[in-house]
Amino acid sequence: MSEFDLIGRYFAALGPERPDVALGVGDDCALLEIPAGQALAVSIDTLSAGVHFFPDCDPEHIGHKSLAVGLSDLAAMGAEPAWATLALTLPAADEDWIRAFATGFERLASAHGMRLVGGDTTRGPLSVAVQVHGLVPTGAAIRRSGARPGDAVFVSGTLGDAGLALRRMLAGESVAPELRRRLECPEPRVELGQRLRGVASAMIDLSDGLAGDLGHILRASAVGAVLELDRLPLAHQVADVVAATDDWSLPLASGDDYELCFCVPPAHIPNVERLAEALGLPLTRVGWIRASAGLDLRRPDGGRLTQPARGYDHFPVADDRAD
């Protein structure tokens, strides 16, 4: 296939039709109409072979994850998904690979009403960059800077599943299918994010680990926090590793969870409990916000855990300061 055959066959009509797309794939630019009273939320992520996924990963899973990480960012702002653009770098125009990739991307895009409106294809080492665009009522976006002392800290789902899958795959060990799916096909908490508008004071998605990502909220809000480690929601496989090794890095610093961490004023805690029941999704209170800076990690025995390794950083520097 030529580049233009590839685009026309697999990407020109990807995702559902939307009335706010005046012009999509096929011209020099897309033309998009932002509805009155809505702010535009925009995020971009790049996934590279050998860094974000194994080179032999199922291309359908790569298509899914390349969009899921951006949808998770929109969820963290309480935004509704709208449009995406895709820059796809391929070593060759392998039609079977491209078809599977497009299938994974299309399935997730359609599930969230998102239309692919443009992008680029080029030859080179395998890499995928996706820019997502979402809509949120003006003034309603949930930012990192709103946490206040006394707020409860919640997380969705379970923590450390993807990190355990990656650890075992790198060691050549067998991986339970449900753990591998958490690594390769994360489910962004889009509906949860939208329904937390007006409830959560601050929010972030957990891409680099709870300790590091919560640290971003603490710095932006100029507050500190206490986490009670025995409250962390863990799948039994992760809980078994922690119990056997006393290694808390899986739930605190391994990353790729793509759950939401959010802070809630005490008056809104009953709303979170009702929301968990309505969505059928665990929303677990794991700590609270305090005025004094820093992150205090309290062990089940009442002692304190030394700050774990920070979350994943593409360009780490030597720095022993605690968050």
From TrEMBL:
Mg(2+) 5 binds at D208. Keywords: ATP-binding, Kinase, Magnesium, Metal-binding, Nucleotide-binding, Thiamine biosynthesis, Transferase. Pfam families: AIRS (PF00586), AIRS_C (PF02769). CDD domains: ThiL. The keyword GTP-binding does not apply. It catalyses: thiamine phosphate + ATP = thiamine diphosphate + ADP. Mg(2+) 2 binds at D45, D73. Signal peptide: none annotated. Residues 148-296 form the PurM-like C-terminal domain. Mg(2+) 1 binds at D45, D120. Coiled coil: none annotated. Pathway: Cofactor biosynthesis; thiamine diphosphate biosynthesis; thiamine diphosphate from thiamine phosphate: step 1/1. Mg(2+) 4 binds at D28, S43, D73. ATP binds at G119, D120, R144, S207. One of its GO terms (biological process) is thiamine biosynthetic process. It is an enzyme of class 2 (transferase). Mg(2+) 3 binds at D28, D73, D205. Substrate binds at H52, D256, Y312. Catalyzes the ATP-dependent phosphorylation of thiamine-monophosphate (TMP) to form thiamine-pyrophosphate (TPP), the active form of vitamin B1. Belongs to the thiamine-monophosphate kinase family. Reaction mechanism of ThiL seems to utilize a direct, inline transfer of the gamma-phosphate of ATP to TMP rather than a phosphorylated enzyme intermediate. This is Thiamine-monophosphate kinase. It comes from Allochromatium vinosum (strain ATCC 17899 / DSM 180 / NBRC 103801 / NCIMB 10441 / D) (Chromatium vinosum). The gene is thiL.
